[in-house]
Amino acid sequence: MTANQRLVVLLYAVHPTDRAGTVVETAAELAKLVGLSPTVFSRTRRQVIEAGWLEESERLAHIRYYRLKPEALGDNVVVEMRRAT
User: pTM for this one?
Assistant: First the structure.
């Protein structure tokens, strides 16, 4: 994972979210927070989505909002149990 990709994942992990875990700010606003151009931020976010860390959560008109996937947060992780012998 590149430094920019880690930055995007970390931003989504610590940024305030709505009840569904969605970060409800535009890419331009988020890019400004971390000092990236909107183009670089969007490209990096796309890479993070393809790597399985983020998912689209909502869409209002042409604006898409994203959240960390539950697997990225450690949610829905199932540990197989077996009988001790």
Answer: 0.78
